[in-house]
Amino acid sequence: MNSDTRPVVFTNVRIFDGSGELPFPGEVRVEGQRIAQVARGTERVSRDGARVVEGGGAVLMPGMTEAHAHLTWPSSVEKFVPGMYLPPEELALTAARNARILLDHGFTSAYSAGALSKTLEIKLNEHIVSGGLPGPRLIPSSVEREPPNESELDPGKVADSVRGPDGMRAFVKGCADIGAKAVKFLLSGESALKPGASHEVLYTEDEIRAAGEQARESDVWLTGHAHASDAVKLGVRHGFRVLYHCTYADEEALDLLEQARDRIFVAPSIGIVQATLDANPPPHIDMRHMKEDAAIVMERQRGLVPELRRRGVKLLPGGDYGFPFNPNGRNAWDLELWVRHLGYTPAQVLHAATQLGGEIMGMGDELGQVRPGFLADLLLVDGDPCADVRVLQDKNRLKAIMKDGRFHKAPGAQ
Ligand SMILES: [Zn+2]
User: Fold this and answer.
1) Average pLDDT in the 376-380 region?
2) CA of 313 to the centre of ligand 1 (A)
3) Which residue, 47, 141, 180, 271, is the most exposed by fewest CB within 10 angstroms?
């Protein structure tokens, strides 16, 4: 932990401010938690009492947001964990470690897409906020809820996983009462786990309506895993704030998403899809069916995302990292995939990962941009991510990582 509380001035940097505009030369002054001044070109910021960081022409940009985070999915770039299950103590330590790993890799914010423990992310977030553990700003969630079923990966199999509107209300209220900020539902199944399941809607209209009403009453956000078109429609109609995948959205679903574009965020989550296509598992693990499904999903997303973007829907990278073949810490890989598959330029996907990242965190007026008054969550990057977004995948190219005006990684540190 860095105890130096002097203001920080970054000089000789090129600033990517989050808007999507290409980096411009300038200087930035940070005071306390926030950006105090941004100078352009030959203008200068005040150096009064400041620690001056000579940027050497590096790019200074906002920290990134992972929009589909699973800190309790155990695998990371530092530690391979076969499968998904860990004893509770080890799960807690692993999640804390994954939080630090995301921050080490330039993700200063994370929007949780569900956890493998009811309360763990909420407790973890308290430790991060109090400064006791390193990690991103976190929108914590509870377990991912799905209806009772026989599936092996069934984090929603909890005592309150019952059917009916009352069960839904109780679940949402229960999550809110323990401090969850977002509540995640599997609105559709998942074909990668069970063939054909992505086309199944798992809840009734009455159930999701009840969840929506309770969420508004309890002041929590709803997040949905939704491949099937009808699952997308359910989510939009009942006030879900974030929808993942939306793979099979039909014309009516697209229209609904467009109408809701001021309040909804879509994260297609193609990282897991490409990772499935690329995986080279040992012979005893049969991924043929998963790979066939992934090929179909990727093809759909290549058409869907440009269409949603044309309609003004807010789209964010974030890729379901934490599986053995798609580990936490590789999150910046998603940006490369958006450039490769979805028709984005590096600057456009960086805008999505930063400025729109601030918005999905519910802090769009103070997070995700390099602007006076905004929170100083900043990365100093050796290289120009707007020329080649892949530089962000190498944590050694992150010369400095600042969150809340304090260095998580100070310049000069390894
Ligand atoms: Zn997920």
Assistant:
1) 98
2) 20
3) 47
